[in-house]
Amino acid sequence: MPSECDHSTRDEDDHDSMPQLPSIRPPPHSHNSKQGVYFILEKASLVAAFVGKKYQILNPDEHANFLRRKNMNPYDFRPDIVHEALLQIMSSRLCLSGRLRAVFIRTDEGILIRVAPQTQIPKTLGSFCNMMMELLQKFSIKSKGGHGKLLKLIQNPVTNHLPINSLKIGLSFSSTKAVQLRDYVSGANCDENLVFVVGAMAHGKIDVDYIEDLISVSGYPLSAGTCLRRICIALERSWNIQ
Fold it and tell me: Where in the cell is the protein located (predicted)?
């Protein structure tokens, strides 16, 4: 199984056998914009185990009996949360306009994944889990159109993959700093890239030391998908993305 090591050698060796995905290309002019956005999905559940005759990403719907036999709480294994989060981001006008720079996923096990903005996320959870299992085994997935690697395992820490001129913003229901998202993003420095850090787990809160501002966007606990949808809409309005 993969670990947090440098996988560059393996990438080259497995180039011909690397799984491939269709991609969605952003407009060619889109990266001229100064300000962009990154998303980091922390504590995502993408746990692989040998079930039956093959490795699979564990989820409570398909593997409840297996997890109980192992005395593991089925609801600690929720790949559906990161799946829904990615669908919200990648289907947004924000992404289609080219203002999304990258999405990073950090799993419970500390594996760091980079998702390119043009990645087409499978609609069903089963297909998504199969894709992520392929990624964990092959270390990267390339585009069918020859546009490079859409998903790949990269080295920690995630801050090494962010631009210097970026503001790292964590979202937490427990934060005492309540904001209106549209006002918050409108007031951001236009020369800074915005990095939103959202927990991709069912319970708990993000606990990372690189966050520079911790905000709350609702008086109620929200799912990761709902938080991300609100962020995307606020940025689309602030940046006049139609």
Answer: Nucleus, Nucleolus
The secondary structure of the chain as a DSSP string is ---SS--HHHHHHTTTT--EE-B-PPPTTGGG-S--EEEEEEEE---EEEETTEEEE--HHHHHHHHHHTT--GGG--HHHHHHHHHHHHTSHHHHTT-EEEEEEEETT--EEEE-TTB---SSHHHHHHHHHHHHHHSEEEETTS--EEEEEEPSPGGGGS-SSEEEEEE-TT-S-B--HHHHHHTS-TTSEEEEEEE-SSSS----S--SEEEB--SS---HHHHHHHHHHHHHHHTT--
Name the pTM for this structure: 0.86
Query: Into how many domains does the chain fold?
Result: 1
Give tens-digit pLDDT for 172-202. Answer: 988 999 999 999 999 988 889 999 999 999 8
Q: Let me know if residue 211 belongs to a domain.
A: yes
The model's pLDDT over 27-49, given as tens digits with 9 standing for 90+, comes to 444 444 568 999 999 999 999 98
